[in-house]
């Protein structure tokens, strides 16, 4: 009878999805993005696996040398191995972007959830505060915060996060508002569930999938913003290897040693591409179904 | 079929006096509604679309969305006043005193969680042993125990509605409001749902407020009917008397139900 409409739920998401997708449209973007991120992860770990020179070890006799056996990606103006610096910059550059994103989420998620659920005056005040911060151009506000804290990688992370969170908070608020109006949220409230339980178990699972998409797309932008600040000399300070800072160091030697510019340039490009591909892939994967089922 | 258990000394399961709902400053959408439901009594609330049936149900569960608000009157469930009640009072009332089954079962279960988790959560709220409560509730509404391991999207509309009735079984509310629970379901499923509702009310002893525009469905579960029209209560009579009612809305509903009867 009606029980025949049942489907077997075992390991629900992945096998079904991959099987149905393999034929028609493969999630190539998502795969490439994940592979690139894995590659960066492997690069970050490679100093533990391979014998690389220290990122700030100078070989003044080999200044600005092109790729050689000793220095596969060449050296910079101080004779430092570019491969070692590129690899050494992975945890710094990506780590800074992820730390900034975590900071942004830590502020915007509670802010947006509280604002949406409190409603009324509380919502009004919280959102106007966010609007005021959003009224400043992002980099200008970040510069102001860095000016206050002093130029360092930590300051640039805090600066970017301080300027970035309001737009995320607005997004979270909108997602929570739409999720909170769904009938199953009303049903959960009707069972007498506490507010925190309703939020954690019934509202947040609806908010997280679209938020995951936004996060991965925004991580790319945050990475670019942080690299820009380092390029301007107010992010990571020398001799810390950081892609933006490496670009800045390469600027005067562009004609003599273009590899100095290309190496960090490609690293930033591929990292941004990876986050964008993952974000786009997640969006395509999750967009089709709403309410969201993980 | 209605069981008039109520006596004068007992507190009514639901007592509504002059309840009005409106967007402040505008014409009331519910206009001075007054009715009582005795413990264990099953009552149908009928009326044409847009007459305020669902709004009544929402008001009694505290689910009115701003700017809608209760603008006057009283509503007591089991002696607890609901109009202007604090959130803490509402939390005590919801679930144990009043529960509602919605129009669209498809959206009333959280999509990302298995049925077992959702029913167990309900059981924990009322302090019951989750494992046992889930098993026996599913059994009562004639669902296979395996259903507990499914996600809502894997169930048919009728099964989801029965899961919600199982939820009501676990909660054992004093009054269960069923807001058009059979809309959009085929007639066989409709009968199963109505049977499950009746069984649930029998087992728990809940009062039942059955909101519907379909007199045939109401006749299956309730005897006494309240008829609404344009936000007002225009009739309170046994279902068999609606055809001779002085209220035009009640007569029209009875005539429509009569016209739809077919002889097989």
UniProtKB/TrEMBL annotation, chain B:
It comes from the Bacteria. GO terms for cellular component: plasma membrane. Keywords: ATP-binding, Cell inner membrane, Cell membrane, Membrane, Nucleotide-binding, Translocase, Transport. InterPro entries: AAA+_ATPase (IPR003593), ABC_Ni/Peptide_Import (IPR050388), ABC_transporter-like_ATP-bd (IPR003439), ABC_transporter-like_CS (IPR017871), P-loop_NTPase (IPR027417). Transmembrane segments: none annotated. It is a peripheral membrane protein. Residues 14-255 form the ABC transporter domain. Pfam families: ABC_tran. One of its GO terms (molecular function) is ATP binding. It is found in: Cell inner membrane. CDD domains: ABC_NikE_OppD_transporters. Belongs to the ABC transporter superfamily. PANTHER family: ATPASE AAA-TYPE CORE DOMAIN-CONTAINING PROTEIN (PTHR43297:SF14), OLIGOPEPTIDE TRANSPORT ATP-BINDING PROTEIN APPD (PTHR43297). This is ABC transporter ATP-binding protein. It comes from Shimia litoralis.
């Amino acid at each position: 009878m009606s029980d025949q409409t049942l489907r077997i739920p075992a390991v629900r998401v992945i096998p079904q999805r991959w099987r149905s997708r393999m034929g028609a449209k493969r999630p190539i973007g998502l795969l490439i993005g994940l592979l690139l991120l894995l590659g960066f992860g492997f690069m970050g770990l490679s100093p533990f696996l391979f014998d690389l020179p220290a990122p700030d070890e100078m070989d003044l006799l080999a200044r600005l040398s092109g790729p050689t056996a000793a220095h596969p990606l060449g050296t910079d103006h101080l004779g430092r191995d570019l491969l070692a610096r590129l690899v050494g910059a992975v945890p710094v550059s990506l780590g800074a972007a992820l730390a900034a994103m975590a900071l942004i989420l830590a502020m915007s998620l509670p802010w947006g959830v509280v604002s949406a659920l409190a409603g009324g005056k509380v919502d009004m005040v919280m959102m106007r505060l966010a609007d005021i911060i959003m009224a400043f151009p992002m980099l200008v506000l970040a510069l102001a915060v860095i000016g206050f804290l002093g130029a360092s990688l930590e300051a640039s992370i805090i600066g970017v996060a301080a300027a970035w969170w309001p737009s995320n908070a607005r997004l979270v608020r909108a997602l929570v508002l739409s999720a909170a109006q769904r009938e199953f949220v009303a049903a959960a409230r009707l069972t007498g569930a506490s507010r925190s339980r309703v939020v954690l178990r019934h509202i947040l699972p609806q908010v997280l999938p679209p938020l995951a998409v936004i996060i991965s797309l925004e991580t790319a932008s945050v990475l670019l913003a942080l690299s820009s600040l380092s390029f301007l000399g107010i992010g990571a300070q020398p001799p810390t290897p950081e892609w933006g800072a490496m670009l800045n160091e390469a600027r005067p030697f562009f004609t003599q040693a273009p590899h100095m510019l290309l190496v960090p340039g490609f690293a930033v490009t591929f990292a941004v591409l990876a986050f964008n591909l993952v974000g786009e892939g997640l969006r395509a994967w999750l967009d089709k179904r709403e309410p969201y089922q993980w | 079929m209605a069981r008039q258990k109520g006596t004068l000394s007992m507190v009514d399961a639901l007592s509504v006096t002059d309840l009005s709902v409106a967007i402040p400053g505008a014409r009331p959408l519910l206009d001075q509604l007054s009715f009582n439901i005795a413990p264990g009594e099953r009552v149908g609330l009928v009326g044409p679309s847009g007459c305020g049936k669902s709004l009544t149900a929402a008001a009694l569960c505290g689910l009115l969305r701003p700017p809608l608000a209760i603008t006057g009157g009283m509503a007591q469930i089991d002696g607890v006043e609901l109009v202007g009640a604090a959130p803490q009072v509402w939390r005590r009332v919801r679930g144990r005193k009043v529960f509602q089954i919605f129009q669209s079962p498809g959206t009333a279960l959280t999509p990302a969680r298995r049925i077992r988790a959702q029913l167990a959560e309900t059981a924990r709220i009322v302090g019951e042993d989750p494992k046992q409560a889930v098993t026996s509730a599913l059994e009562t509404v004639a669902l296979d125990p395996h259903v507990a391991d499914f996600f809502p999207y894997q169930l048919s509309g009728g099964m989801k509605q029965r899961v919600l009735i199982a939820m009501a079984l676990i909660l054992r509310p004093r009054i269960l409001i069923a807001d058009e629970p059979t809309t959009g379901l085929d007639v066989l499923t409709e009968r199963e749902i109505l049977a499950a509702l009746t069984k649930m009310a029998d087992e728990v002893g809940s009062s039942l407020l059955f909101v519907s525009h379909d007199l045939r469905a109401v006749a299956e579960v309730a005897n006494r009917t309240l008829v609404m029209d344009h936000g007002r209560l225009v009739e309170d009579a046994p279902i068999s008397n609606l055809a001779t009612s002085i209220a035009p809305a009640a007569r029209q509903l009875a005539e429509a139900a009569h016209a739809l009867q077919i002889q097989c």
